[in-house]
Amino acid sequence: TDIPVIAIDGPSASGKGTVAALVARALGFHYLDSGALYRLTALAAQRRGVALDDEAALAQLARNLDVRFEGGEIWLDGERVSDELRTERIGNGASKVAALPAVRTALLERQRAFRQAPGLVTDGRDMGSVVFPDAATKIFLTASAEERAQRRYKQLMEKGFDANLSNLLEELSERDARDAARSVAPLKQGADAILLETTHLSIDQAVATVLACYQARQ
Ligand code: C5P
Questions:
Q1: Is 154 among the annotated ligand-binding positions?
Q2: Nearest protein Cα to ligand 1, atom 14
Q3: Which terminal CB of the chain, N or C, has fewer other CB atoms within 10 Å?
Q4: pTM for the whole thing?
Q5: HSE value, Cβ hemisphere, 13 Å, CA-based, for 113
Q6: 88 CB under 6 A from ligand 1?
Q7: 139: CA distance to ligand 1 center in Å?
Q8: What are phi and psi of 55, to 5 degrees?
Q9: What ipTM score was computed for the predicted complex, to two decimals?
Q10: What span, in angstroms and rounded, lies between the C-alpha atoms of 87 and 106?
């Protein structure tokens, strides 16, 4: 297909979701937060009492998720779950289910279905490497672990959740290590991805850089 995709991959709490959503808005493109699908699978498992290592049952859950994305909010089984999805508990669960090949396969077609005219901006770990290998623009967006912990801390506080900075730093590091070490679709910068280091960049600067990379390829 010639529908353009901008793939933004990177570690947790790097700000890639915020940047991707703003790039999508600037271009009038659709937006897919692929991490939300792994988080939704973990949340659905928690609610149904499915163990986080029961690969077959989790793949089945992932395939049949009753989910709705609308106006920046996410619904699971008809209930708004956007805030609960962002907690570290669910992020950690997501990272566990995401290491299972059958779960990744179950979510593949669902992700590709978001590729609709006039274009798609998506963020995750393997958007440029596995899900949309023909993406027009591939970005690896990162920031130092300390900065990422700060960003997640702020985000959680703004949503009214309790958070502890040093615990967050530890949890993020643990999650990144697991995401990088897994055998399927590990977190790493692809050879064809542009590195965008945002530790000292504002959100607007990061958005402008992604837009410039995309426009330079047209
Ligand atoms: O990006 P986010 O923090 O929401 O992702 C949650 C978890 O889902 C990640 O830690 C990662 O293990 C997994 N994930 C993935 N592939 C993606 C997006 C997320 O494995 N494309």
A1: no
A2: 35
A3: C
A4: 0.94
A5: 5
A6: no
A7: 16
A8: -55, -45
A9: 0.97
A10: 23
